[in-house]
Amino acid sequence: MPSALSVVPRDDLLIASITDLLIASITDLLPAAGGGEIVLGTWGPLSGPASAWGVVNLAQAAYFRMLNERGGIHARKIRFVVEDDAYDAARTLALVRKMVERDAVLAFLGGLGTASGSAVMPYLVENRVPHIAPASGSSRWSDPLRPGYYAWQMSYSSQARGPGHLRDGSPRQAQASRLLPAG
User: Fold this and answer.
1) What's the whole-model pTM score?
2) Residue 135 phi, psi (nearest 5)
């Protein structure tokens, strides 16, 4: 299994763009004065049957450690809180509440799974806690639009239409039978 550092994206522009979006979305939440830390959070399967995906959380944590080593963001350090939900949506809401209410998380970055993201969405919207780049292709992150939700992954339905466009340039929807190998 690769180390977390070996899977940190090499495209610094993408990471910088996501970080800029995150910081821009929480700027209004930050106190006007003071140099306290910026607390961000995420959840993911660090244990359990989907724990291979936990490397994403480790890579995120490595990125924020690197940012802090370079002076932070506007001289403010990032504290990145990662909680293990073991890919169990029934655990995710309690973990997110803890991160917001006890750890003082200002915004979430990522968070794997449609079921877990759906479980926390009402709480995050009600409490005005931004959620940047939910790790799921569900269209619910952007349709209808919700305050504080910033989806970046193409929706599953858009992904299904994509191969039809790529194959011959026409705008028709690809059929699943054409995507699967014969036999």
Assistant:
1) 0.70
2) -85, 75
